[in-house]
Each structure stands twice: as structure tokens, then as C-alpha cells.
């Protein structure tokens, strides 16, 4: 195919089926990039792959200077691009659903909160999100391809005395799914029946493991934070052959800008006395996502009101902080003392010279905070005998790693997502840091403090 320099710009998108060479291709993270190579035989330039925007510019200028014969081959579609796009859209929907339910849970006090067999809380939101995400993934990616391991089951929900609860879940799921087109997804043709909603929840019956592909879903992580009007997250990860390959974290109360957090806290303290906010002038929440090996993590605002989610919806890259001096670092940990030893981390913080007060935040928002550079260290040391579940960490781990951070257990080993629903073999606790140098210091400090601790 012969192209002159002027027709090239039009030809590339046509070949790639896009409107413009600068149209974002892969979930807003990559712009088309073209690496060029001159083949010996025909002295032509070949488009062999996709690259980033700056390289696109190099490519374009090299073409302008070299109006030779070109042979163009369509690139392979980016791996997991469809899965990522569907996952982010589904999490956006889930966040919108949660925001609505959280406001109603807070205004009706705690009556809507149920206790599971292990006494942990669960709400209409947990089941509604699980059903919604399960339905969207299955419909968009094909029911037979989709295997999901998720936190909630239908036992409590199916009890005879819980019919009101089940009704509320069915209602919420249907309201949320009817909004799917706003998120660029297909809505069901008819309202889902109660049986279909229960089926969507119980379809999440994967047991995980070392082979094949499955999704790990925590519909509401930090349910305690959720019912207290505070931080929580919707966490979705794709795991393939034991490795987390995609992570999406929806943080409905974690604004795009850290400075807006104060506003959020004030808002929630007085929410019961306020009419619901109508202002669209601030981004109350965000969705952060990353693909393994991409070296990039991205954040987009939640969509609100009647706005449509235009892909990739003003996504911007996030990166971990460059602080590697513990004296300047901020560390975060679980809010609940029962979930992690505050006394151990306090001693450790003191020993490495951490000066700032710990940032105690519910849920995987802690992972988001590290990935965005709002804090530098996250530590969780659960009591002996507690087994961490993979859905509480999978999405956060890949997001921090791709944003430039390091996540391991206290022995410095990567977390193992290949052993079913638990992080088996976890050495003591979880340590996530903004960089390798800081991580190394914390690991050494844990070793030094461990034997003298009572953990
Ligand atoms: N005893 C104990 N020890 C350790 N971890 C526990 C424990 N109990 C629960 N969980 C899990 O912790 C999830 C909540 O997240 P965090 O660890 O960030 O805790 S906190 O919300 O900040 O207090 C929470 O996730 P959700 O159930 O999704 O809220 C639990 O899976
Ligand atoms: Mg729970
Ligand atoms: Mg959780
Ligand atoms: Mg949960």
C-alpha cells in the first residue's frame, strides 16, 4: 500500500477502525502508538505495535520526513482491554448504587445492617452490588466465560424473615441496572425477578485456585465504614493462573483531590441535617484501575447525575509518592483495632522514625491512598489465626504495583492469589510501600520488632 505523508494520518485510524489516530484505545491509558521499523527487503516502514502518545508524535514526524512506501499491519487488540472496560464501567455503576444506599442507611440509622454468622456486618448494598456486578460481567463477557469469587452468599438473604431485605435488594439491583446505558452498558430487557437476582449473587461461586481465569469481587469493602458514613470501596480484580492481571477500585467517598477529603468529612458529620448535595462542582469519589505489567495506574471521577460515562471519562494517571525517608512518610492502617494490631505498628513506626500520625481509613481506600501518593506506607497485622481473603487485597495490590509501589507480606514475599479464597502462607502481615527503598526499611524494622512483640 502506498501512502503519502498527508494521507497517512487518515489511513491509520481507518485501518484501526478508529475516528482519529489520537483516539484513546485502551481504557484511556494508552493512546495509539506506533513503533516503526524499516524492513530490509522493501525499505518500507511497518507499524508493528502500539505505543504511547509521545512516541506517536515521533512516529508521525518520522513519517513526514520519509514519504516512502508503507506496509501497515493491524496490531493485536490490547490484552484484557474489553475486560478492563467492562470492569470499570461495572464498578462505576456499583459506586453510584452504593452512594444512594449509603445516604439512606445513614438517615435510617443502623436498622438496615444485618449481622452475618461471623458477626460481621452486611447490608443491602453488599448484596445489591454483588448481584449487579455479577449480572453485568456475565452479560457483557458471556455467561460461560465468567467465573466469580465474591464475598457474599445468599444464605442470610434467603431466610424467611428477610423478605423485606430481599425485596430491597431486588429493587436496588433493578434500579441500578436500568441505568446501565448511562455507563455505556446494556440494561436488561425486563426487570430481573427475585430468582434472577438470587442467581446472579450465587453465580459468584468460584473457589479460585492456580489455573484459569476468575474475578475476585468485594462488593463493599469496609462495610463498617460504609454504615458509619465513612470510607469504603468496591473492589474487582481479574486473576489468571494465580496472578492478578486487572484491578479496579471504586472509592465513592475518596475525592479526586485529597484536599476535598475535609469537605467530605464535614459533609458526613452533618449529613442528616442537610438536603442531599446537588452540586456537581466537586468529584466526591473516584475509580482507580491498573493492568499488570502496564506500568501505569489510572483514576477517573465517578459520574453523577444524568451525565453519561464517555470513555475514558477524563482518566488521569496516578503514581506513588517519591518520599523514601520514613521521617517524612505517612502510614495508614485499618481503623478497627480488631483487624490489625495498632500497638505493634505504633512501636514499629516509632522505631523507623515515622513522625506523622497514622492515617486510619476503612477498606481498600488505603491501597488507593498509596497508589495516588497521598500516603507512603500501609501495614496490616491481623491477629494470629485470621486468614486474609483474596478479595480484600487483589485489586489494591496490582494498582499499587503498577503505580510504582511494592506490596509483600512481612517476609518480603509477594502475596499468593493462587491458593483459593485465602492468602495462604502469608508471613505475619501485609506491607505496601511507595517504593522499594522504603519497603526494605519497613521489612527490616518488622523483623527487628517482631520477637519483642506479643503478636
Ligand atoms: N478480625 C479481622 N482481622 C482482620 N481483617 C478482618 C477481620 N474481620 C474482618 N476483616 C476484613 O477486613 C476488611 C476491612 O478492611 P480493613 O482491614 O481495611 O479494616 S478497617 O475497615 O479499616 O477496619 C473486611 O472487609 P469487608 O467485610 O469487605 O468490610 C474483612 O474482610
Ligand atoms: Mg464483609
Ligand atoms: Mg473486604
Ligand atoms: Mg465486603
TrEMBL record:
Protein family: Belongs to the inositol monophosphatase superfamily.
InterPro entries in the cross-refs: DPNP, Inositol_monoP_metal-BS, Inositol_monoP_superfamily, Inositol_monophosphatase-like, Inositol_monophosphatase_CS
One Pfam family of this chain: Inositol_P
EC annotation from Swiss-Prot or TrEMBL: 3.1.3.7
Source superkingdom: Eukaryota
Protein name as it appears in the record: 3'(2'),5'-bisphosphate nucleotidase
Single GO term (MF): metal ion binding
Cofactor entry: Mg(2+)
GO biological process, one term: phosphatidylinositol phosphate biosynthetic process
Reactions listed under catalytic activity: adenosine 3',5'-bisphosphate + H2O = AMP + phosphate; 3'-phosphoadenylyl sulfate + H2O = adenosine 5'-phosphosulfate + phosphate
Keyword flag Plastid: no
Gene3D superfamilies: 3.40.190.80, Fructose-1,6-Bisphosphatase, subunit A, domain 1
Alphabetical UniProt keywords: Hydrolase, Magnesium, Metal-binding
Residues given in the record as Mg(2+) binding sites: 151, 218, 221, 392
Amino acid at each position: 500500500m502506498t501512502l503519502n505523508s498527508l494521507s497517512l494520518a487518515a489511513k491509520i485510524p481507518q485501518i484501526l477502525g478508529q475516528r482519529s489516530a489520537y483516539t484513546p484505545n485502551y481504557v484511556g491509558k494508552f493512546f495509539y502508538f506506533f513503533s516503526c521499523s524499516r524492513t530490509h527487503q522493501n525499505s518500507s516502514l511497518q507499524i508493528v505495535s502500539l505505543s504511547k502518545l509521545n512516541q506517536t508524535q515521533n512516529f508521525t514526524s518520522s513519517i513526514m520526513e520519509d514519504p516512502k512506501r508503507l506496509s501497515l499491519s493491524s496490531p493485536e487488540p490490547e490484552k484484557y482491554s474489553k475486560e478492563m472496560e467492562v470492569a470499570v464501567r461495572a464498578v462505576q455503576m456499583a459506586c453510584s448504587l452504593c452512594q444512594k444506599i449509603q445516604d439512606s442507611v445513614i438517615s435510617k440509622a443502623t436498622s438496615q445492617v444485618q449481622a452475618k454468622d461471623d458477626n460481621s456486618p452486611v447490608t443491602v448494598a453488599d448484596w445489591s452490588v454483588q448481584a449487579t456486578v455479577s449480572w453485568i460481567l456475565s452479560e457483557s463477557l458471556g455467561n460461560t466465560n465468567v467465573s466469580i469469587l465474591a464475598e457474599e452468599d445468599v444464605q442470610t438473604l434467603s431466610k424467611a424473615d428477610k423478605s423485606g431485605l430481599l425485596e430491597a435488594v431486588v429493587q436496588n439491583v433493578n434500579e441500578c441496572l436500568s441505568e446501565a446505558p448511562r455507563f455505556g452498558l446494556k440494561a436488561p430487557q425486563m426487570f430481573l425477578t427475585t430468582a434472577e437476582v438470587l442467581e446472579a449473587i450465587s453465580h459468584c461461586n468460584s473457589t479460585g485456585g492456580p489455573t484459569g481465569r476468575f474475578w475476585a469481587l468485594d462488593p463493599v469493602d469496609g462495610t463498617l465504614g460504609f454504615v458509619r458514613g465513612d470510607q469504603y470501596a468496591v473492589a474487582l480484580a481479574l486473576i489468571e493462573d494465580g496472578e492478578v492481571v486487572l484491578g479496579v477500585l471504586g472509592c465513592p467517598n475518596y475525592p479526586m483531590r485529597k484536599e476535598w477529603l475535609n469537605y467530605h468529612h464535614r459533609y458526613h458529620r452533618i449529613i442528616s441535617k442537610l438536603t442531599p448535595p446537588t452540586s456537581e462542582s466537586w468529584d466526591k469519589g473516584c475509580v482507580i484501575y491498573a493492568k499488570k505489567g502496564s506500568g501505569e495506574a489510572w483514576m477517573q471521577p465517578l459520574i453523577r447525575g444524568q451525565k453519561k460515562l464517555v470513555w475514558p471519562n477524563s482518566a488521569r494517571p496516578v503514581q506513588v509518592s517519591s518520599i523514601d525517608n520514613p521521617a517524612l512518610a505517612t502510614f495508614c492502617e485499618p481503623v478497627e483495632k480488631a483487624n490489625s494490631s495498632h500497638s505493634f505498628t505504633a512501636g514499629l513506626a516509632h522505631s523507623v522514625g515515622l513522625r506523622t500520625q497514622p492515617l486510619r481509613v476503612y477498606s481498600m481506600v488505603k491501597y488507593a491512598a498509596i497508589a495516588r501518593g497521598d500516603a507512603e506506607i500501609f501495614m496490616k497485622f491481623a491477629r494470629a489465626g485470621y486468614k486474609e481473603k483474596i478479595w480484600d487485597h487483589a485489586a489494591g495490590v496490582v494498582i499499587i504495583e503498577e503505580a510504582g509501589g511494592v506490596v509483600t507480606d512481612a517476609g518480603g514475599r509477594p502475596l499468593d492469589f493462587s491458593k483459593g479464597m485465602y492468602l495462604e502462607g502469608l508471613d505475619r502481615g501485609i506491607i505496601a510501600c511507595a517504593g522499594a527503598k522504603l519497603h526494605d526499611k519497613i521489612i527490616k524494622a518488622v523483623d527487628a520488632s517482631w520477637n519483642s512483640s506479643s503478636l
